[in-house]
Specification:
Blueprint: E1 2-5, H1 11-22, E2 26-31, E3 47-51, E4 69-72, H2 84-99, E5 106-112, H3 121-134, E6 139-145, E7 148-149, H4 154-165, E8 168-172, E9 178-179, E10 182-183, H5 184-193, E11 203-207, E12 213-214, H6 215-225, E13 231-235, H7 240-250, H8 255-264, H9 276-280, H10 287-299, E14 332-339, H11 343-351, H12 363-375, E15 396-397, E16 400-406, E17 411-416, E18 422-431, E19 434-443, H13 445-471
């Protein structure tokens, strides 16, 4: 079967690809930037990657006419643009218009549970997208999920941050809101199970786990699995805005996503009864089983995808390929080099930089810079990295984004996503037994120049120390 897959580099999309390949399907993967697709991960001749931007109808001609089914896995909840409702409307309309010109018989859409009259802006947007997709000439199957539990999911990582960092929580009253979390493994079983299933055509199904829990219960049961003792006190005085700041500063989420999450979490998301689970023969994992399975993946460094893989910087919307060529004109450059003792050891250190490993020298200064970044609405250092030793273009790495990573070429290029009065790149390259470390900053106006000179003394300390540690 030939399947069109959108949201290919997203959390769900990356989980679906290996499952479809194992089942023998042919995939057409839609990406905004081919450089973000890890071809090495999927060594198959049944994958075709096309560059498509569903916000621009002129790019949709790449979608082939001969397809059997399509998956719509696009959402703009964490977009820098506040009006994500309009973005989702445009994207869904363009997708519908193009897909109904193909031979696709079915479209499968992963949405959010919408069982209250008063919906958050995020859930209302999901409902609007469903209505747009349903007006196409194909059969639409909508699966509506609430919290998805799995290694790398936004919900899982936020819960993990809260539980592992805060032994005592004064939390907003929406922690008493009920939801029905579901394991990512079950979500994938539902998504693949409804493919060309006639009984699912032109219908929507709520999908959730076997238990209905309040957010407070979710946090406490997560703590129990992790063998941590936690106390949570809910207060009625915390407004959605204060709740957003609470999530933003404690967890690794972006501020825009924190705002949308805080609003969504005041809405109950409990599944309405349906027979899809029995029809597909799915055995639902309990909350504890989902958490233990997720940590098993983390401990074995087998996390397939992460919500942090999604582009978070507005500058990156045009694709990472636009940033591959580091500018020189009008830039400040800190370039250092030294001889390496063992090339392979130094290369492995470079490929392990950031996250739990840290930056090898003056980590407290890196931490301070991450804290300052959070104060100004940036991503901070809490995003970490998905894998401690593997890097692919498009991955998040603390407050950097991986632009280029070729271990054979021994070159790594990072682009700064921290709040800056300008743009910054950090490059590592080993040539002829020498390690070259280059920091490039393109200032924006006088403020950018003032920033560069104000941090110059710290750069001298940090960059020289890091270079020495990497080369040892």
């Amino acid at each position: 079967m030939k399947i069109l897959l959108t949201g290919t580099t997203g959390y769900i999309g990356q989980r679906l690809i290996p499952v479809f390949l194992e089942k023998g399907h042919e995939l057409v993967c839609c990406v905004r930037d081919r450089n973000r697709f890890d071809f090495q991960k999927y060594k198959s001749d049944r994958i075709r990657v096309i560059e498509v931007n569903f916000l621009d109808a002129n790019t949709l001609g790449e979608i082939p006419e001969e397809i059997d089914a399509a998956y719509y896995l696009i959402h703009s909840m964490s977009a820098a643009n506040e009006d994500f409702e309009e973005l989702e409307k445009i994207s869904a309309t363009n997708f519908r218009n193009r897909v109904q010109e193909t031979s696709a018989k079915q479209v499968i859409y992963l949405s959010g549970i919408v069982n209250e009259e008063k919906l958050s802006k995020h859930l209302n947007s999901r409902k609007l997208v469903e209505e747009i997709l349903a007006s196409g000439s194909y059969h639409l199957t909508t699966l509506r999920a609430g919290i998805i539990l799995g290694s790398g999911s936004a919900s899982f990582e936020i819960i993990r941050d809260l539980v592992e960092k805060l032994p005592f929580m004064i939390a907003p009253k929406w922690l008493n809101t009920r939801s029905q979390p579901i394991a990512i493994r079950n979500v994938i079983e539902y998504l693949t199970g409804v493919l060309m299933l006639g009984d699912s055509f032109d219908q929507s199904f709520d999908i959730g786990g076997p238990e209905i829990l309040s957010y407070k219960e979710i946090l406490l049961r997560f703590a129990k699995v992790r063998k941590l003792k936690r106390t949570i006190v809910t207060v009625p005085v915390m407004t959605p805005k204060l709740s957003s700041y609470w999530l933003y500063f404690v967890t690794s989420t972006s501020f825009r996503l924190a705002v949308n999450l805080a609003k969504s979490m005041s809405v109950e998301v409990v599944c309405r009864e349906n027979k899809l689970k029995e029809l597909l023969g799915i055995e639902l994992l309990t909350f504890e089983q989902a958490i233990e399975l997720a940590f098993g993946k983390i401990q074995n460094e087998a996390v397939v995808s992460s919500w942090k893989d999604a582009l978070s910087s507005h500058v990156l919307d045009k694709g990472i390929s636009q940033l591959l060529e580091v500018p020189t004109y009008g830039c400040f450059v800190d370039r250092r080099s030294c001889e390496v003792k063992e090339v392979r050891r130094s290369l492995n250190k470079i490929w392990s930089i950031g996250g739990d490993t840290g930056w090898y020298y003056a980590n407290w200064l890196w931490g301070l810079r991450g804290f300052i970044d959070k104060l100004f609405g940036g991503v901070g250092l809490r995003r970490g990295r998905k894998n401690n030793s593997l890097i692919s273009p498009g991955d998040s790495l603390d407050f950097w984004r991986v632009i280029y990573a070729d271990k054979e070429e021994m070159k790594l290029l990072l682009y700064a996503e921290m709040k800056l009065p300008g743009e910054a790149w950090l490059e590592f390259e080993i040539k002829d037994n020498r390690l070259y470390q280059t920091a490039t900053f393109r200032p924006l106006g006088l403020l950018g120049r003032f920033y560069w000179y104000s941090v110059l003394p710290f750069h001298g300390l940090i960059f020289s120390g890091m270079l020495k540690k990497l080369s040892e």
